Amino acid sequence: MIRIVFLLFINLSLLNSPSFAQSAKEIVRKTDEKAKGKTSIATMTVQIIRPTWSREMSIKTWTKGNDLVLIYVTAPAKEKGVVYLKRFKEIWNWIPSIERNIKMPPSMMSQSWMGTDFTNDDLVKEASILEDYDHTFLEDAVVDARTCYKIQLLPKPKSAVVWGKVIMSIDKKDFMTLHVQYYDEDGTLINTMHGSDIKILGGRLLPARMEMTPESKKGNKTVLIYNSIVFDTPLDDSFFTTQNITKVK
Length: 249
Known about the structure:
By secondary structure, the chain is of the alpha+beta class. It contains three helices and 14 strands. Strands 1, 2, 3, 4, 5, 6, 7, 8, 9, 10, 11, 12, 13 and 14 form a 14-stranded antiparallel beta sheet that branches.
């Protein structure tokens, strides 16, 4: 009995130790790097689904590491040319219909991205899931018959983030994010994202379909479908500038 109690104490100590937390962070890092590469160029379809209507957009995205992101809307015609740019800690939005380039304040990160169920922060990732959160393991989870690490992300004290808590389920074998729950500061579940339609994209096994569902809005969801993605194509930092934001096609 003493031996059993001792082993339980050791296991609980390991779960709460800095080295174990670091391992959780490394798993998130590995998953993040697999999904992004050094650079990525992707085309996507965004489906906004509501109880009485739906609409669809097409976008193209470029990323370089965690600090440089550009999103270009290619359809429908009335929104074509809208651009979102993240350059380190600055977020810019080019609106061609009024020929204005607007710098977005941090207060807008929690707002809906173009009427979808994704927030601005979800798309341009102002907050870093690696640097702005502390990571700890929870119990394992099974998502669509795949055994997953279940990892809790809690914001660091001085981090300016949208979410009060994030829980990620990451496939143990192939390091894919399959399920994410987003909570507010009061611990209330707000949004759930689920990854499915797993296939080879850019030479990597990844979910091609990401579905975001708000907890409090029955019948609402937004589906992001990857049509193509290319990793590790050289991209100069000058591509991700406000000078280039009006020239992207």
